[in-house]
Amino acid sequence: MELAKFFGLDGFDDLVQNCVALLAYERPQESSVGYLLEESQRDVVADTINAMILSTNPNMKNLQSCLHSYLEKLLRQLTTCYLERRSSNGDQGEAFHLHRVLNSGKDIKS
């Protein structure tokens, strides 16, 4: 019943139904929607569930804005700024790699 409120959301409907269908099977990997459990689909499923959760925010005025979390928007902006700074320096300097920064445990130096 709780999941029913997510049906009919523009841009989510088919994927929401498929994600919910995974819950109905005893062995979901063997079902017709089992492909959603494959590694190549995990990001899509996670993004859909994330958007569903974000859409429950009562302060959300635009459902399309829940397609990207604030963290994702911030990381996109960080990446864009870093690349713009590099471009203004004649493409000199190291390219920005989020995974490298996160794994190094060091701050980004300006």
From TrEMBL:
Q: Which residues form the CRA domain?
A: 2-91
The superkingdom of the source organism is Eukaryota
Keywords recorded for this protein, A-Z: Receptor
Per its record, how is this protein called by name? SPla/RYanodine receptor (SPRY) domain-containing protein isoform 2
The lineage, from the top, is: Eukaryota, Viridiplantae, Streptophyta, Embryophyta, Tracheophyta
